[in-house]
Write a structure and sequence with these properties.
The protein has a three-stranded antiparallel β-sheet with strand order 1-3-2. The model has no long low-confidence stretch (mean pLDDT about 90). The protein contains five helices and three strands. The chain is an alpha+beta fold and about 110 residues long.
C-alpha cells in the first residue's frame, strides 16, 4: 500500500488530476473505500463492462490511488481484487509554485 504525503512533480499532479477527473473513477474510490472487490463484482456494482472498468482502474493505478492483488477462489479461479490506497494530498498555491520552480530549473516546464 502506498501513502503519498507530498506531490513531487507536475507529472504526478497530472496523474492524480486525471484519476479524480471522472465521476466513474470517483464512484470506484467510494466503493473501494469500504472494501476490496474483484473486477467482475466491481463492474456489476457500477453497471459497466469489465473492459471499461479496467480503463478506469488503470488511471487510478497510474495515480497510485488503488492497487490490485490476485486471490484464488475456493473453486480454484484466480480473481483480481482492487483496493484503495491510503492517501492524502495538499494541493495549494505553494505546491504549484514549488512544482513550477522545479520544472523551470529542470527545463521540463
Amino acid at each position: 500500500m502506498i501513502h503519498m504525503n507530498k506531490i513531487e512533480n507536475i507529472n504526478q499532479l497530472l496523474l492524480i488530476g486525471k484519476a479524480f477527473g471522472n465521476p466513474i473513477r470517483l464512484k470506484i474510490l467510494i466503493i473501494l473505500s469500504k472494501n476490496g472487490y474483484y473486477v467482475s463484482e466491481l463492474a456489476r456494482k457500477l453497471e459497466i463492462s469489465r473492459a471499461v472498468l479496467y480503463l478506469h482502474l488503470k488511471k487510478l493505478e497510474e495515480g497510485n490511488l488503488v492497487y490490485s492483488d490476485i486471490k484464488i477462489s475456493s473453486d480454484g479461479k484466480a480473481l483480481k481484487y482492487f483496493y484503495i490506497n491510503s492517501f492524502e494530498f495538499l494541493i495549494d498555491n505553494t505546491l504549484i509554485e514549488e512544482l513550477t520552480k522545479i520544472n523551470i530549473d529542470n527545463e521540463e516546464f
